[in-house]
Specification:
- It comes from Streptomyces albiflavescens.
- This is Immunity 49 family protein.
- The protein is built from twelve helices and four strands.
- With 287 residues, the chain is mainly alpha-helical.
- The protein has a two-stranded parallel ribbon with strand order 1-4. A two-stranded antiparallel sheet has the order 2-3.
- A hairpin with a 2-residue loop joins strand 2 and strand 3.
Length: 287
């Protein structure tokens, strides 16, 4: 029997339809602005991802097509961000975002072209099963992410390297994953606190290791733990209760990899929206 990890009820707005309409319109405005202001990519991506998560607050299983559209739009913005960042200066990139092909100028390396943003963009591409965008993202040089100037623990660059190595089937995956694990030691952290590392950032590494180890029992144990720790962290106090924690983005993406590999998923949770996990909406429209 699947282990259930329930998410606390979302209180939300008294008028969910209006709330979602406002969020969708705001997101579309941010997306439209990219054709003239590519330096606003960071804000546009943040808004698109928040809107996708908001849809899952009102639609926990992602049962509505509007929810799928919001997740695809967030994925498209994240991938377009890195397409723009890696394009030669003075050129443009053609990107499909929110059902429309858009011509966006190259933005170059900016503060938002960082490893944390890359992980979010990659997880979204995995969840939406967009292999072309996964490949595009995995060809983004790690040096480019470092050049953003964003401050991260060193482990994150090994983590990105390991994921790129896995997807592109390059040699050295084991060594890179070990380097990422070594960098998560709570006693060596410089920029983030122990709780964030232990409950939010470390569990996806462990889950991915269990995935590539091809042990379904250990994988599901790690998935239960990852979702439970995610819940513990994001519900610890009111200050943390935000859209950021309403979907367990990294555990969901890795569970999608396992599902697509034919592994049993023995966890049920609103943190892992069912119809995103089992790719029910895949092929609904051009992405």
């Amino acid at each position: 029997m699947p282990t259930k990890v329930p998410r606390p009820p979302y209180e939300g707005s008294a008028d969910p339809v209006q709330h979602l309409q406002w969020a969708n319109e705001d997101t579309l405005k941010n997306i439209a602005d990219l054709e003239e202001y590519p330096n606003s990519f960071g804000m546009a991506f943040s808004r698109a991802l928040s809107t996708a998560q908001l849809h899952c607050c009102y639609d926990p299983s992602a049962n509505k097509s509007e929810t799928w559209e919001a997740w695809v739009a967030a994925m498209q913005v994240g991938s377009a961000l890195f397409a723009s960042a890696t394009a030669p200066e003075g050129t443009t990139v053609e990107c499909m975002i929110a059902h429309k092909k858009r011509t966006i100028p190259a933005c170059g390396v900016k503060h938002f072209v960082d490893a944390g943003t890359w992980l979010e963009a990659f997880w979204l591409a995995v969840i939406c099963r967009d292999q072309a965008r996964m490949t595009q993202l995995c060809n983004v040089p790690i040096e480019l992410l470092r050049a953003s100037g964003a401050v991260f623990e060193e482990y994150i660059y090994h983590w990105v390297d390991a994921l790129q190595t896995y997807w592109l089937e390059r040699p050295g995956l084991g060594e890179k994953l070990v380097a990422a694990f070594d960098g998560t030691d709570p006693d060596t952290l410089r920029f983030i606190d122990r709780e964030m590392m232990l409950k939010v950032l470390y569990p996806p590494l462990n889950l991915f290791y269990r995935f590539i180890s091809q042990d379904p029992v250990k994988f599901n144990e790690a998935l239960v733990q990852a979702v439970q720790l995610h819940k513990e962290y994001w519900t610890a106090d009111e200050e943390r209760e935000s859209l950021t924690g309403d979907v367990a983005l990294a555990p969901l993406a890795i569970a999608c990899l396992a599902y697509d590999a034919g592994r049993p998923i023995e966890v049920e949770s609103e943190y892992l929206p069912e119809n995103l996990l089992d790719r029910s909406w895949l092929g609904e429209f051009e992405t």
